[in-house]
Design a protein that fits this description.
Layout lengths: L3 H24 L4 E5 L9 H14 L2 E9 L10 H32 L3 E8 L4 H9 L4 E5 L5 H10 L4 E4 L10 E5 L4 H9 L1 H4 L4 E7 L7 H13 L3 E7 L6 H11 L4 E5 L2 E4 L2 E4 L1 H8 L5 E4 L1
Parallel strand pairs: 1-2, 1-4, 2-3, 4-5, 6-7, 6-9, 7-8, 9-12
Antiparallel strand pairs: 5-12, 10-11
Length: 299
């Protein structure tokens, strides 16, 4: 008869083996990044494609690009000839932009040896943002560029996908993310954004917690507790409090992050939808169109 002690030892070995197997599978999971592209009326830039590929190269992630091809609404077939001709011109423009984006992305990805999947789909123009937001829910994060023409798409993906959004400035060149700056206000939104940044923290060595002291009252105990947990996780942490002195908060935060040589800014996105229009917080509104460095936002 097998002794109870031997049974217990065998059970412990089995448990340890299962744990090692789970950890091995977990470490083998590749991050999946999403690139929602625009083809009409303004097309996404080639620099966004390059940044997305470079980001996936540095992070060891796969990339999937969604390419909406604007299609003719069914009701327009019953409309006047000038309307149909105008819409057909729109379709042709969207199709041409989509083809150029697809070929350029394939070329960039092949040169960097990054796995990329491109998924074109037909959609009416009014449903593009909603559809890309829904697709984004299947991925770890989505990648867009900050600009006025892209703002409607940015808002849809940011507030409707439930996933983190990484925004690039239009002239940015993506590099390795070693230092991460966090716009810290103690709120739940920035805590959620920080969780979304976990993929980058795994390869980073330094975190900078930035608070704007004359914008809102900061709970220093909460901030220090957060910093202590990061240090315990093996990260070097700098805590800095700055004064805006009437300057735009978003500009002050970005300038401070760049002064500390941060590669990525993490911040919460504040806003809500009313009658299908997004009412944004001041800092969020500024970051969507005037960005000086890559920023990861989460709502």
């Amino acid at each position: 008869m097998t002794s109870p002690a031997l049974i217990l030892i065998k059970a412990q070995f089995a448990c340890a083996s299962d744990t090692r197997s789970i950890l091995a599978r977990t470490s083998a999971v590749k991050a999946q990044f999403h690139l929602p592209l625009a083809t009409y009326p303004d097309a996404s830039s080639f620099s966004l494609l390059q940044n997305a590929v470079d980001l996936c190269l540095h992070q060891g992630a796969d990339l999937t690009a969604s390419v909406p091809l604007v299609s003719l609404p069914a009701w327009l077939h019953l409309s006047s000839l000038p309307d149909i001709e105008t819409m057909r011109a729109v379709e042709q423009s969207s199709k041409a932009s989509g083809a150029a984006l697809e070929q350029t992305l394939r070329d960039y990805a092949a040169a960097a040896n990054v796995a990329v999947e491109i998924q074109p789909f037909a959609i009416e123009e009014r449903f593009v943002g909603q559809s890309l937001a829904e697709i984004s829910r299947a991925y770890d994060l989505s990648i867009l560029e900050a600009s006025d023409p892209m703002r409607p798409l940015i808002e849809s993906v940011l507030f409707e996908s439930g996933r983190p959004l990484l925004l690039f400035p239009s002239d940015n060149v993506c590099g390795r993310v070693d230092a991460v700056a966090v716009a810290w206000d103690g709120g739940a939104t920035v805590a959620r954004a920080f969780t979304g940044a976990r993929l980058f923290l795994e390869q980073a060595s330094r975190v900078i917690l930035i608070s704007v002291a004359d914008d809102k009252q900061i709970d220093q105990r909460s901030r220090d507790r957060f910093a202590a947990r990061l240090q315990k996780a093996g990260l070097s942490v700098d805590v800095t409090a700055v004064q805006a002195n009437g300057e735009p908060i978003a500009s002050v935060i970005q300038a401070t992050a760049l002064e500390h040589k941060a590669d990525l800014l993490v911040c919460g996105a504040y806003g809500h939808s009313r009658l299908r229009e997004f009412i944004l917080g001041g800092v969020t509104r500024s970051l969507l169109t005037r960005l000086d460095m890559p920023a990861l936002l989460c709502h």
